[in-house]
């Protein structure tokens, strides 16, 4: 079971925000689950919600499986292999996570360390999988706002990401709103989070 210090710090504050949205029996698909810590925590906090993790990195998949085996929770599923840069129709999803059957698509700390194809793929998948009118895409991480990045620590972080990969870096919320709209999603709310991060909530409207 891999442990990321950042996930340890932010899983509690994220869960507090999710209490506004995860009510009743829901199906949540996480894209880019990483170590698996978030869903391991959320599955205990929200026992009525069915949590389906996914990843494309073998080491992370092994870590998620270890959490699943350790916790033995009925609502915390074995991870799927998902390459979000591929069309969602090509993913091997279980029948109950078919198009327009998913209540929530959740992704944390992925958008700023992803290719343009992966970012577009996340929103395309949400538009493809979420239930119309009620389905939500919830993302967490650092973002640019109206062409500006703040504070200095986020500016430095953005520069370091772009040095590693030219396609990485903090995406602007206005850009994400446009990508969302192109996939039948409407921006609904932004929550300010610790350490200069935000939660963004988009609703499937068509």
TrEMBL record:
Which InterPro entries does the record cross-reference, listed alphabetically? DUF938, SAM-dependent_MTases_sf
Against Pfam families, the record matches this protein to: DUF938
User: What family name appears in the similarity comment?
Assistant: Belongs to the UPF0585 family.
The identity of this protein, by name, is Methyltransferase-like 26
Task: Tell me which species this is from.
Answer: Mesorhabditis spiculigera
């Amino acid at each position: 079971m891999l442990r990321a210090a950042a996930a340890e710090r932010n899983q509690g504050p994220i869960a507090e925000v999710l209490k506004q949205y995860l009510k009743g029996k829901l199906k949540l698909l996480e894209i880019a689950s990483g170590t698996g810590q978030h869903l391991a925590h959320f599955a205990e906090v929200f026992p009525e919600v069915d949590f389906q993790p996914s990843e494309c990195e073998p080491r992370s998949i092994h870590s998620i499986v270890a959490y699943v085996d350790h916790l033995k929770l009925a609502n915390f599923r074995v991870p799927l292999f998902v390459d979000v840069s591929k069309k969602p129709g090509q993913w091997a999803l279980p029948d109950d996570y078919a198009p327009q059957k998913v209540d929530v698509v959740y992704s944390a700390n992925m958008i700023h360390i992803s290719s343009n194809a992966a970012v577009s793929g996340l929103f395309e998948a949400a538009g493809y999988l979420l239930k119309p009118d009620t389905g939500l895409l919830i993302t967490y991480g650092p973002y640019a706002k109206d062409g500006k990045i703040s504070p200095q620590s986020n500016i430095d972080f953005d520069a370091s990401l772009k040095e590693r990969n030219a396609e990485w870096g903090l995406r602007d919320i206005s850009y994400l709103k446009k990508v969302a709209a192109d996939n039948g999603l409407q921006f609904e709310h932004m929550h300010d989070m610790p350490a200069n991060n935000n939660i963004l909530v988009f609703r499937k409207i068509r």
